[in-house]
Each structure stands twice: as C-alpha cells, then as structure tokens.
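Researcher: I'm preparing a figure for a lab meeting and need a structural model of a single chain. I don't have an experimental structure, so a prediction will have to do for now. The sequence is pasted below. Please return the structure as tokens so I can convert it later.
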Amino acid sequence: MKKLLLAGVAMFAFTDGAGARDITIAQSSDLRSANPGVNRDGNTDGVILHIVEGLVGYNNSGEVKPLLARSFNMSADGLTYTFKLRTDVKFHNGKALTAEDVVWNWTRYLKPETKWSCLSDFAQGGAAHVTGVKAADASTVTITLEKPSAVFLGLMSRPECGYTGMISPDSVAADGSFVTPIGTGPFQWDEWKKGEYIHLKKFSDYVSPENDGKPDGMVGSKRPLADGVKFMIIPDASTVKAGLESGVLDTAEISPDLIPEFKSSDKTQLIVSRNNGKNLFYIQTRDKVLSNPGVRRAMAMALDLDELVAAASNGTGEANGSMVSQDSVYFNDTQKTRLPYDVEAAKKELAAAGYKGEPISIIANKRGNVPSFPAAIMAQAMMQQAGLNVQIEVLDYATQVDRRRSGNYQVISQSVAPRLDPALMYAFYVGTKDKNASLMWDDPKAVELMRAAYVELDQEKRQKIFDEFHELMLKEMPGIFLYDMVDVWGATKKLKGMPVWQSNARLWEVSVEN
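Model: Understood. Here is the structure written out token by token.
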C-alpha cells in the first residue's frame, strides 16, 4: 500500500503543473520512438496517432476516407491515385502543407535507411509497390503503383506504418537524422521524460477534416478539447487502478475482472469499446489428429459460442465466427453464419472422422487483458461433452507466440490486434505454411481468394470474395473465431468523450471537467 501511495504522489507531481485541463492517461510501456512508423509498438502507435496524419485514414466501419487530402481518385487502370490536398492544413511549426511536403515524406519513407516498418508493403514485391510520387501542382499529388492494389489506401492508414503520417521537413536534421515529430495532428510534441511520461500539448491552429461534428475513426471531428495529454508510464495494474480511483489518472485500460467494480463505483466510470481485433482458437491443420476437417468442425459444433463469449468476455463481447469484424462495411448476413451448436452432430462428425479419443492440447496464457485462459477453460468443458479429449497447457505469452510462429501446437487460444481491411486480416492467417509456419490456413482456394481480395477494387465484387471465403472457412474450420476484441477502460467521472478506438488511446473530442 505504501508503494501505491508513493506512486500516486509521484503521478500527482507530474500532472500538477501540466495545465488544469490536461488529460492524464496511463499506458503500460514507454514510447519506443517518436519517429512515425519506425521502431514502433502498440503504445507508441497510440501516441503518434495524436501527432501525425496521413493523406487518408480509416473511419469506424473500416472504409478509407480523405484526411489531409480533401479528395482522391483512382485512374481507370487502377495504377494512379490523385490526391487533392486540403488548403487549411498547417504543420505544428505554422508552415502550410504542400504537395512538395508529401513528395518529401514519401521519398523519405521509401528509403531503406529510414527503416520504415511498412517499407516492404510499398517496395518492389510488396502488396502496393509505389513506383512514383509527384507533385502535379502545389496542392495535387499523384502516386503511381506497379499494379492495381485494393489495399493500397488501407495499408497507408495502418498504425504499424505510423499512419504514413506527414511530418514537416524541419523534423529532420541536415544530415537526415530524425529530430522531433512536427506533424499536423490535433496535439503536438512537447516533452518526453523517458521511463516516466510523454506530454503533448494542444495544437491551437488545428482544423478537423470535413465531418458531421462527431468523431469517426481517424477522419471525423478531431477537435483537441484538452490543453494537453500526458501519457504516464505505469506498468503495474494495481497502481493504475489506484490512480483512477484517486483521480490522479483520468483514463486507462483496465483488467476485465474489474468491470463490476468500475461499473458500480461512484468515483469512476467503465468504458467498453469493440474493436476489429479477434479472439480465436488457432488450429494446426497439419497435426495428425486435427488434419481431418471433421474433427475441427466437431470442435466448433461442441461450443455454445454465445455462452462461451459471455463468460470469457465478462459480458462485454458478442459472438462472431467470421474473420470480418461486426463493425466492418463488409459484415453481412453471410458473415453472420456459423456452425450450429449441436453436441450430437459433433459426436457424429467425430465418429465419421475416425476420432478415437486422442488428446488435443489447447495452449493458453493468463494475461489479464485477454480471454486466452478463460476461453480455453470454457471450451475444454464444452468439447469434453462431445467426447473430445481436450487438455490445457498454460504458457507465458512470449513462449506461446514462439510456439505459434514455429507451428508447434495443436490449438492456441489467442487474440490478434485490429486490422481494418478484411484482406489484411486474412493475411495474418492465410498462406503457405512451408514459407511461414505461423500461418494458420494454407488451403489453395483460401490463398487464391485472399490474393483476389488484395487486387479487386470493386466493393461488391470484394464482398463476394469475402463471402465465398467465409463459406469455405465454415467447411474447413482451420480455426474457431470467437468474438471481436473488446477494449475495457476505466475513467474518472469527470472525463467526457470516448478515449479509445481500435485499442489505441484517442483523446481528441475528449475533455476533463475542472
């Protein structure tokens, strides 16, 4: 208790002088780098989101919309994209964004020495090989691709890419080394005390993209309503809880087991937000027992998915057996289809498959912010009712990841971070296992459909691809998708607005009452 009190005093000391209307938020680890899309992780992406913006960004339903561009269009052959820039955009140093700035940024990103995380996507051999970036005039940029790509705009918008954020050339020293991020976002860089906090201050000259007055992913109303944002580095969950209860912290991610406490508290509020990530059971389709689709289908039919999800998510999740998120523009009636919960039918599938009680091991971890272990426990009990000999192996998360990447598993209870375009989600699971052992499904037809989704530009035709993919998945069951991930956050009663989106802090259109 003494340690927690001291931590609270320390946090108070850090926040007291930052301005009465700063938002103070906890995150579990420090910033890796302030250089967008370079040496990044999830917490880093969340900070960078507030500082930089790309030409385009995702909205809530996973569609790519203009952001720094006021419009964009694609040539008939799918090879040239023309972006008309907004004329009301300024960098944090007061300079106006121009087409030449966009060319400079893209040239920098595509240089190997920049070490951009997404270079492989846009270089030769990537999903969207960029062959040219030109300024047609002061406010028009053209980007040319080697071949059509349905995921080009989506790849640009990814957190892993630093959102392909535009920074002022003044962000870089004369020798090309990165100095500080001078972006266009609603908050600007202020101070980084390593191991303790990152402070951003309000960009008073910020102008939101055209919107309907509401936040919408990365592209809706983006007003900075607070004077600043302070990201406190607090890895200890109990210290975070104490900080929220005391009011020293304004908001933070919390463990799902705290849901009842935060829901009933008169000091705090509970914030629950669904994202496009996935909770699922990976199945090793090359395993001697699980190579039979009948066994895999029986496993799925043995699960009362609604009951399992309600228990594993503490009542916050909704069953979804599709790789496509429920919030996606591509989530339709076909995507809602899943194998029925039918224990007797599962038993018949097992008999037809020649299953004779061979052991099946589910690998789980006990991290508090994911349902890996509780989902495995529920599945074990349900599958045993159908005659499946299911055991659970508990590993630390790092070892679990290593086992998945090496292909050394039968079943893994896992959570996967958001990817807003379904094709990008497919790519995490589908492909040739001989080249990448971490992939879940190497069915030739599935690979063909995934590749088609990467190049098909027509939305209706893409929908048909995704629907055919889902129907094939229900026949083959290379994995069992449980539900879309849920962000569970706590906040003080004084916080107004939604501080989280797609597992990232998103603190525009958010304020704290004095």
